[in-house]
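To the team - 5-amino-5-deoxy-1-O-phosphono-D-mannitol complex, inputs and output below.
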Amino acid sequence: MCGIVGYVGFREAYPVLIKGLHRLEYRGYDSAGVALVNEKGDLNVYKHRGKVAELERFAESKDIAGHIGIAHTRWATHGEPNDANAHPHYSESENLALIHNGIIENYGLLKEALIQNGFRFRSNTDTEVLVQLIEYVMQTNRCSLLEAVQTALREVIGAYAIAVVEKGNRDRIIAARKSSPLVVGLGNDEYFLASDATPIVEYTDKVVYLNDEEIAVIERGKPLRVVGLNNAEAKFDIKKLSMSISQLEKGGYPHFMLKEIYEQPRTIIDCIRGRVNIDGTHVVLSGVLDNKERFLHAGRIIIVACGTSWHAGLIGEHLIEDLCRIPVEVEYASEFRYRNPVIRPDDVVIAVSQSGETADTLAAVELAKRQGAFIFGICNVVGSSIARATDSGAYIHVGPEIGVASTKAFTGQVTVMTMLALTLAKEKGTIEEERYLEILGHLQKLPSLIGEVLELDEQIKDLSKIFTYCHNFIYLGRGYNYPAALEGALKLKEISYIHAEGYPAAEMKHGPIALIDNEMPVIVIAPSDSIYEKTVSNIQEIKARGGKVIAVISAGDHTVRNIADYCIEVPTVTECLSPILASVPLQLLAYHIAVNKGRDVDQPRNLAKSVTVE
Ligand code: M6R
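Output:
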């Protein structure tokens, strides 16, 4: 939700900022803007509704000189996406410009007080209150910008990552964070600032992740300073980035989403690497083993997540209950955090999040932590807020996921869940050796099996043409594949804007079956598993009512092939891994339908990759 970039150094700031905004555009693309201080000390703000390209066109004929600047790409929360609500926001005197990611909850009261003190507002945003408040404090207390930022932030309730520049100051950016991410990049005689490391990685691999309620004083020619809201110096660690530029580019694919779907054979290898022994007979998730006692004595495991990560959590529930015999509950983080849940000290909470920045998941983690539970994180982004807030965890190591629709992160999350369940089941003695070896063996074959599924791309593309103009879809699955049905439906709706619902196949007859007619495509995930016959009966029920069935089946299944209208045949794999193989053709189907409809696949409307507001 909103991307922040900043630069101070010897380069022209504008190109660095624009490139950074393009890298962060996945976080929001309702408007974009930039503030630059030129050599004369003028503070110039340019901003425009729409994507970064619109800003570039708008700024073409403007004075974009300067070696210091801040820039923003917005996902609208307060105020519609228009030019006035775009960031940066000027203060009343236009001496300050500020960008913000987050939500200021008490902005209404602060705004009223500022209006009474003669401040005029040009936007409907909560953000503008911050920059006006900082200026008000500077004027009334006759203090420095840093002191004013500290005082203002003590008044604020909510979440923020901010950066401020000042007219006449060509050297300094003040930045601060609370519950929204912010990273400072340390170059030679230059500094970078961003919401995540992607705009920084091509200039330096040295970064500092700010913690909540920390302020970075980023000043040309001086060492980085990090202070608290009370001005106490804060210690910081310089971390080394392991990301590469090629991971951030499309590499010849028309969209990041397609690239990321195709990366899955490799990302599963990366995810498993170093965790399975050389003979392929033993798997260890060190984050689990290092905290063995907590896991072995867990009365219950609670999985908290949102969206696709929640679907991965549902598969985790099946895996852990099935293999480890520990009761599991899977919760939407947004519900969990507000419903006064019972959390016991012997609970283990697993937080699943690709970005590691999802506000609701982070809040659920903090709640469970306060109540004494042990927290384990399954994240992709190294050094992210959730990764840092948890007691232990396992990264999924699938590389940066840029497409807003999650694909490789989902299969990575399920892969880590599988390794977690196997590690724990072995320690608990709840799995027979034969089953353990079978699942582990199939896990290692997944990359080549996914490769086989990707060879079906042309077939799926042809299929997509038949269904591009349908208005509704139903996705069905049972057992391990019910979450895969939910995930398939989510993929379709978020990038094609077609209404799609996922259901457990047997639930159909309790209501949704009324929707079936010969216009309704029903995607049924029907691998040859322990409940195969039951799923076949569900397919018969749909066919009896004229529905069009597209079935995802195991290789060689002639029974469903004879009943369904269309079949996508995927390799046979052990039951608990079947949702991984089933989800890949559904990712491709959603992708092709969205492309046929001319949708913006990587940046679908109203969405953002990282949901840092609740
Ligand atoms: O970064 P997270 O995994 O915490 O994100 C959770 C959801 O916002 C995310 O999975 C969302 O549902 C995706 N757009 C799904 O493709």
